[in-house]
């Protein structure tokens, strides 16, 4: 009996070894790949050896997050500016070049979402994730901003990152309620960074609409999103990090998987005129394409444990920081990824095609002729109210209105277009009512008779 038990145990062990070997040869998940190198020894050498500066910071992630890609720290300056340190987990420092883990990550790059690690989970958690109280290899971007949050300088170096505290948005909200001065300054910084970026985008749109320098009568309030202060702060700092990485690639003539498509639009409100709505869609796409075309390149590196393109970009950058050349395999992968991204992004939007009529008809069936967003449309004290009165006095048709939400570079901008007879004007702002009244001002200017010798009014379309 004992002999049979031993035989069965040996057979079970043999079968398990064969299954492990089969998974190693044909991995289905990242966890099927064996760690066949001294990961702990590599980590010890990187975090306690010479050549890496020690930095500290915090992480702000979802409460359920177990793998942490990035850490931040913000220090106010005496002149009202800020020094911001953004640290990214240095995954390429611990994954041997062309190891089966890297090859597997490359092969399933598109299959996993952002919440699925591309490498062996235990390896990431024990050696790479920026866990609280641990020292881990990182790449740190140090930004110096002036009092108006304009970038003064940026430096990049390989570091050892120590996580002082692992936070989430609920923690941030609790600390704000307690009156924590540092947390209040940090979250205000995130809000100001987003507000500045949004206002810059509004100004670009305003300049594209028509060169008449029409500005809102008063700047509307820009309230923060309560409960998301930590997420917003991390989002803004990571955008700065990715833009700085892209600039590093360009300045040093390095290949990088740049992602050129950064915007799209949503239909919020349609008019009674299909052709006018189609024209609004074309204007919206033109605005987005113009902004993208004139924007700096963008390359993500801030999720190297979860996105292969981020891992690849960080690998190329850190090799260059170490004085090494880009490997041919990595350059080929950059070309493949960039081609895939941009082919997917250049598909013609269906909202510029006649087939959009079905979508338009559905929107028309769901809406009244007046947008629910504009409560003051008939108020004569407003610009849109004055325009409606002018149309009535001239026995013209009431202005038709269409509304689009432009999403460009992580910013939401509302575009409102108006049509009176055959004249179309539009304006864009982060506040829908403000955009409506700016477009009405432009329409009133278009409707005024030209004085002798006056320059013709510019076309509203970009």
How large is the radius of gyration? 27 Å
Task: Give the strand tally.
Answer: 9
Order of helices and strands: HHEEEHHEEHHHEHHHHHEEEH
**How large is the share of residues in beta strands?**
15-25%
Order of strands across the widest beta sheet?
A: 1-5-4-3-2
Structure class: alpha+beta
Percent helix among the residues? 40-55%
Overall mean pLDDT: 85
End-to-end distance: 87 Å
Unreliable spans: 450-462
The profile of the biggest β sheet is:
5 strands, mixed
Shape: elongated
Q: What's the tally of helices?
A: 13
Q: What is the structure about, briefly put?
A:
The protein is α+β, with helices and mostly antiparallel strands and 462 residues long. The chain contains 13 helices and nine strands.
Q: How would you describe this protein?
A:
- The chain is of the alpha+beta class and 462 residues long.
- The protein has a domain at 22-258 and 296-344.
- Helices cover 44% and strands 18% of the residues.
- It has 13 helices and 9 strands.
- It has helices at residues 2-25, 39-48, 100-107, 121-128, 169-178, 181-209, 229-251, 274-294, 308-321, 328-345, 357-366, 383-393, 432-447; strands at residues 53-60, 70-76, 82-89, 135-145, 151-167, 263-269, 400-408, 411-420, 423-429.
- A 5-stranded mixed sheet has the order 1-5-4-3-2, sandwiched between helices. It has a 4-stranded antiparallel sheet with strand order 6-7-8-9, sandwiched between helices.
- A hairpin with a 5-residue loop joins strand 2 (70-76) and strand 3 (82-89).
- Helix 6 packs across helix 7, helix 9 (308-321) packs across helix 10 and helix 12 packs parallel to helix 13.
- Residues 450-462 have low confidence and may be disordered.
